[in-house]
Specification:
The chain starts with a helix and ends with a helix. It has helices spanning 3-19, 31-50, 68-86, 90-101, 106-113, 117-146. By secondary structure, the chain is mainly α.
């Protein structure tokens, strides 16, 4: 994403939040979840209207000043991660990203996705279990090939 696009999206998000501040209800969830939902929906809307050749999930920023061997290894690992993530539905990817990379609680994720907290917990648990099995299979395949 270009810096200017990101700045425009942030501006749009805060304008939407200010316009809808009266609709915030603390009984339905935290302010963080409410603003995150606005941000998520704004970004999704942006990419839907762009209709570029690239999918948002296919864009990975791998620029680095590291040496080439490290960069190649990182690219190979990122391709594996991207392959696993591409198998997931968009909402499943969101759950994993919000939980693991953004450190959100199950309740916060449920608020953002407008889902039941128990459903998010079950979905997350199943996703992690599935990913562990796939990683184990990759490791076993690597061992067999390299013996």
């Amino acid at each position: 994403m270009h810096k200017e696009t990101a700045e425009d999206l942030v501006s749009d998000i805060f304008i939407k939040a200010l316009d809808k501040i009266n609709s915030f209800d603390a009984q339905k969830g935290s302010f963080n979840s409410w603003i995150y939902r606005i941000a998520r929906n704004t970004v999704i809307d942006h990419y839907r209207t762009q209709k570029k050749d690239k999918n948002i999930d296919d864009v990975w920023d791998l620029s680095s000043n590291e040496d080439i061997a490290v960069d190649v290894d990182v690219r190979a690992q990122m391709e594996k991660v991207q392959e696993h993530f591409s198998k997931l539905k968009a909402e499943q990817r969101d759950i994993v990203v919000m939980r693991l990379w953004q450190g959100m609680s199950h309740k916060e994720i449920a608020d953002v996705l407008e889902k039941n907290e128990s459903a998010v917990k079950v979905a997350y648990s199943r996703l992690i279990s599935q990913m562990r099995k796939e990683v184990l299979l990759l490791i076993l395949t690597w061992i067999v090939i390299n013996i």
